[in-house]
Amino acid sequence: MKNILITGGAGFIGSHLVRLMVNKYPHYNIINLDKLTYAGNLENLKDIEDSPNYKFIKGDICDTALIPKLLRDNKIDGIIHLAAESHVDRSIKDPFAFANTNVIGTLNLLQSAKNYWGEAGKEGFEGKLFYHVSTDEVYGSLEQEGTFFTEDTKYDPHSPYSASKAASDHFVRAFHDTYGLPVVISNCSNNYGSFQFPEKLIPLFINNICNNRALPVYGKGENVRDWLYVEDHAVAIDLIFHKGKTGDTYNIGGFNEWRNIDLIKVMIKTVDRLLGRPQGSSDSLITYVTDRAGHDLRYAIDSTKLNKELGWSPSLQFEEGLEKTVRWYLDNKEWMERVTSGDYQAYYEQMYNR
Ligand code: NAD
Ligand code: TYD
C-alpha cells in the first residue's frame, strides 16, 4: 500500500498517528483529511507539515462530492478513519452532531471506498483496507471488578457518543459482510498524552491546577477508566493496519484502571511538585459537582488478543506517562492558550482558504 488516507489527523490521536506514519514510512504518501473543528489543530503537526510524503486536505467526511474525488485523485489504497466528534459531554448537549459525523460521515467513507475500490470488481479490494478506529465505550459499563471487555462483549452503549460510535462500527462490519469490503476495527480505552484538547479529564485538570481553577469531579469520583498513553495507541494502530486480520476486531488497552478521584490526586501531586508548590496546596481545588447523565461506572479492556496475535504491549508505565504528559502541558502553555482562545482556528482558516 502506498497512498494512505488518515481522517481526523489534526486531532489528538490522529496527529500522533500521522507523525508516526509520515516518519516511519517515507515511501508512503500520507493524506490527512480533517475538517478542523474546535478539536483539530494543524499546530499539532508543525514538525512534519513540510515532509514530502505528507499532504493536508481540509474537508468534511460527510461531503458526498469531496470524498469520492479525494480517493480517486490521490489513488487511495488504505484508509485509517479517526475523524469523529469525541467528547461525551458535548454528545449529551448535541447528539445530532455526533450522528452526523460519526455515523453518516463513516457511511460516506465506506460507500466511497466500496465504489472506488470495487470498480475493478472483487479483485479491486485486494491489497486495500478500511481501518475504523473505535472506542471501548461501545461495550457499555462494567460493574464488577475483575471483569473486562473482550472482542466478544455485546455492544451496550449508553451515551449519544458511544451510541454513534457503536452504529458506525456496525456499518463497518455490514460493509464487510455484505460487500466484502476489507475492514478492520480496533476498540481502545481512554487515551492520554500531548496535544489532547483540554475538555477531556487529564489536560483540563492539569490546566486548571496550573491556573488555580476548580476541578469539577463528576459524582463521587468513583468511576473507573483504563488509561493508555496515546503513542502506544498509535503504535497499535500501525501494527493492526499492517498485520491485523481482515474482518477482525482488536481491543487495545493497557490493563491500567484508575478511579477518577485517585487519578486526580496523582495529577495534583505531580503538577504541584513540578511547579515547586508545597505538597497539598492544590487539594482544595477538588470540587464535587452533579454527576454526568448516564455516566458509565467502569471501563476495562482485555487486550490479550492483540498481545498474543500481534505481540503488542504498552511501552510506558502509567506514572512515567503521566509525568511526561504533565511536563508537556507545562512546557507548552502557549499551545494551551491558543487552542482555547479561538485565535488559532481563525489563523488557519485564513491559511487554508486563501
Ligand atoms: P479529537 O476530538 O481530538 O479529534 C477528532 C478530529 O476529527 C479533529 O481533528 C476534528 O477536526 C476531526 N473531525 C471532526 N469532525 C470531522 C468531520 N466531519 N470531517 C472531518 N474531520 C472531522 O478525537 P481523538 O480523541 O483524537 O479521537 C480520535 C478517534 O479515536 C475517534 O474516532 C474516537 O472515537 C477514537 N477514540 C478516542 C479515544 C480517546 O480516549 N480520545 C479512545 C478510543 C477511541
Ligand atoms: P473524559 O475525559 O471526558 O473521557 P470519557 O468520558 O470518554 O471516559 O472523562 C474521563 C472521566 O472523568 C469520566 O469518568 C468523566 C470524568 N470527568 C470528571 O469527573 N470531570 C470532568 O470535568 C471531566 C471532563 C470528566
Question: Mind explaining what this structure looks like?
Answer:
42% of the residues lie in helices and 16% in strands. It is of the alpha/beta class and 354 residues long. It has a domain of 237 residues: NAD(P)-binding Rossmann-like Domain (Rossmann fold, 3-Layer(aba) Sandwich), CATH 3.40.50.720. The strands form 3 sheets. The protein has a 7-stranded parallel sheet with strand order 3-2-1-4-5-6-10, sandwiched between helices. The protein has a 3-stranded mixed sheet with strand order 7-9-11. The mean pLDDT is 96. Nicotinamide-adenine-dinucleotide binds next to helix 1, helix 4, strand 5 and strand 7.
Could you give a quick summary of the protein structure above?
By secondary structure, the protein is α/β, with parallel strands linked by helices. It has twelve helices and twelve strands.
Task: Write out key terms for the chains shown.
binds thymidine-5'-diphosphate, 354 residues, Rossmann fold, 12 helices, alpha/beta
CATH topology of the domain at 2-192 and 229-253 and 295-315: Rossmann fold
How many strands? 12
- Major β-sheet strand ordering: 3-2-1-4-5-6-10
What percent strand? 15-25%
Indicate the radius of gyration in whole angstroms: 20 Å
Q: What's the helix-strand series?
A: EHEEHEHHEHEEHEEHEEHEHHHH
The CATH homologous superfamily name of the domain at 2-192 and 229-253 and 295-315 equals NAD(P)-binding Rossmann-like Domain
Counted by DSSP, the helix tally is 12
Architecture per CATH nomenclature, i.e. the level-2 architecture of the domain at 2-192 and 229-253 and 295-315? 3-Layer(aba) Sandwich
Main sheet summary: 7 strands, parallel
Mean pLDDT: 96
The dominant shape is globular
Low-confidence spans: none
- Helical content (DSSP H or I, runs of 4+): 40-55%
How widely separated are the two ends? 32 Å
**CATH class category name of the domain at 2-192 and 229-253 and 295-315:** Alpha Beta
Quickly give the structural class: alpha/beta
Bound molecules: nicotinamide-adenine-dinucleotide, thymidine-5'-diphosphate
